[in-house]
Design goal:
Layout (H helix, E strand, L loop, with lengths): L3 H11 L3 H14 L1 H14 L7 E6 L5 H9 L3 E7 L2 H13 L6 E5 L11 E7 L8 H11 E12 L26 H10 L4 E7 L2 H20 L4 H23 L8 E7 L1
Parallel strand pairs: 1-2, 1-4, 2-3, 4-5
Antiparallel strand pairs: 5-7, 6-7
Helix pairs in contact: 2-3, 3-4, 8-9
Length: 270
Amino acid sequence: MQYDPVKRSLGNVFNKAPWLRKLFYNLLDILLLRAWYIKREIKKLYSKDRNQSVSVLDAGSGYGQYDYFVSSYLKKSDILGVDVKQEQIDDCNDFFTKIKRQDRVKFEYADLTEFSKPDTYNLVLSVDVMEHILEDEKVFKNICTSLKKDGVLLISTPSDQGGSDVHHEGEHSFIDEHVRDGYNINDIETKLKNAGFSKVESKYSYGTPGSIAWLLSMKWPILMLNCSKLFFILLIPYYIVTFPFAFVLDWIDTITSHKTGTGLIVKAVK
């Protein structure tokens, strides 16, 4: 399934005005379970002192939704979002200029296999990015180099327990742009430690409740939109029916420990 055409179509709709883009961010935060986990981890790190100066790298910034959250939650944060898609960089710079945060939040083109700014960042975000990059160990080393001492890398990525909707040998990723179907939890921890991180903590996300919610809120709508853009008109009634169920399932997923799951949330400390 081609995910990028759907993303571009959504971007075209929600880029028309800042209030629409804010609405889009709020919708993504509600619908994407990974956003629940990443926002919770950020709050754990900084809830005791939200006024501290924090230098942040969003490594694969996409729509910029996490940069909007961090810049709202941490008023003294200085954020750089990098991505390989110039249209998204331009859209993000335009939006953050319109809402007058361009002094604290900037976006630029960068290839993460080449990007390195030694001892610069307190926090690096990598949200559903590493499954798109073949040379992952090189990226982990670059990020470790770019972090200050005691800096933190937060990762959300599919696991090998059915991540990318791959459940059996011979199946392929639901998302065509993925270069791997998911990480083994021990494998990603080993790679991060080899890259120079001193402490790595991993846990499964998208257990049974979250996986069902993902089918309802993401996979089935995306499949419909890939068939025809006419399904855009059906999205509102579809979500009116399915959203309450998906919301409750996502909430259950976040308060439950999972022995296995289709996603991984990883925190690595330099």
